[in-house]
Amino acid sequence: MSSSEQPSAHFDFSGRRALVTGAGKGIGREIVALLSACGAQVVAISRDAGDLDSLRGETGCEVIAADLADANAARQAAEQAGPVDLLVNNAGISILQSFLDTTPEAFDQTQAVNVRAAMIVGQVVARGLIGRGAAGAIVNVSSQSSSVGLPNHAAYCASKGALDQLTRVMAVELGPQGIRVNAVNPTVTLTPMGAMAWGDPAKSAPMLARIPLGRFAQPRDVAQAVAYLLSDAAGMVNGVMLPVDGGFLSN
Fold first, then answer.
1. Which of 51, 137, 208, 216 could disulfide-link to 188, CB 3.0 to 4.6 Å?
2. In sequence order, what are the residues at sequence separation of 6 or more whose Cβ sits closer than 8 angstroms to the Cβ of residue 204?
3. Residue 175 belongs to domain with CATH number
4. Catalytic residue numbers?
5. Residue 72 located in a structural domain
6. Strand pairing partners for 42?
7. What does the mean pLDDT of the chain come to?
8. Beta strand segments in 4-99, E
9. CB of 53 within 8 A of CB of 23?
10. How many structural domains is the chain composed of?
């Protein structure tokens, strides 16, 4: 299979209700499409009502418009989604500033979306599962930047390191309740946000050179890893940070 060909995986999520945050674009949108194609009833959360309208038209998903940087809005959106079996905390932002220029406002906003929203939405979903006596699965979309330092990504790297640790605590505490919690940690992924951060060849070439497979990730690569972790095929996988990085972290 050439690097330009995208693999195809199918899991059966019939009868399962999935909630995906940050669903309007990029990785989140691809996750919604894949889970819907695999039979899940999907609820998509995004800030952009236009993105949600087009996504609903493409996939038939339910939609909720909310700004997850607002703690109350995050909680209300999760509650509005109703009973959920599968959760993907994908919402994330990246504000590119050097360490010396990182502002408290940018740092706090990044943590609010990338970490705090995952905690709040995860709490609502987990409490619902426990209250129903149901098993479930949660996947947090993290990044290879949780393990390496990247220039101009101080707030982002810090948030993804925190998200990995949150994932581990969730796995330890929720596992006994039948709720598996894992993370996926992609390399540079060619989404609109990824293109903004890595569109300059002078910046992207050294990063690309460190990936043994010789390419950046596509949203589909990440979506399929998420689907696996949500599926019964990963029934004994809990507390894992799964790199989707073409071997970057092996260097």
1. 216
2. 188, 198, 216
3. 3.40.50.720
4. 156, 160
5. yes
6. 18
7. 94
8. 17-20, 41-46, 62-65, 86-89
9. no
10. 1
